Amino acid sequence: METIRIGEIVSTHGLKGEVKVRSLSDFPNQRFKKGNTIYVEFHNEMIPFEIASYKIQQQTVYLVFKGYEDINLIEKYKHCFLYIDKNLIHSLKKGEYYYFQLKGLEALDQLGRYLGKVVEIVETGANNCLRIKGENKEFLVPYVPSFIKSVDLEAQTITINVIEGLL
């Protein structure tokens, strides 16, 4: 099974098995809804968990897993990553991309010069930004059409419209 990383358990919350999750997903309301099966990577093994309940507060996801409604049962999974089966993702409209598709792309300027690699998508509340790590520095580029000229998944490149002051 091919998987996609969608989050990380950062801590427990309360005594009834609730965990606090840092979401890495573009669609947390879909990924973490009640009844979904997600996988927890624990000692190099993918363990399936069914979501018994979830809530999202201020960009933090809180989950309870069915059968793990006790802090003593869930505590050992702190700092573990969460995954979904890649076959469960839905198709996007033309010109839309999942975060996992953008990470690792080589960023080029409008003249084809190498700027660095996309290492993270940062959710800012307004416009998401791409964190690009170059040879000597890191910088953020707003993920909006005025800055993103094109994305070529086959060539593994993203072309950035570099304006004065961006770098």
Explain how this protein is built.
- The chain is mainly beta and 167 residues long.
- The protein has two domains: 3-88, RimM (Elongation Factor Tu (Ef-tu), domain 3, Beta Barrel), CATH 2.40.30; 99-160, Roll (SH3 type barrels).
- The protein is built from three helices and twelve strands, in the order E-E-H-E-E-E-H-E-H-E-E-E-E-E-E.
Task: Break the fold down into its secondary structure elements and pairings.
Blueprint: E1 3-13, E2 18-23, H1 28-31, E3 37-42, E4 45-57, E5 60-65, H2 71-74, E6 81-85, H3 99-102, E7 106-109, E8 114-122, E9 129-133, E10 138-142, E11 148-152, E12 157-160
Short recap of the structure:
The protein starts with a strand and ends in a 7-residue tail after the last strand.
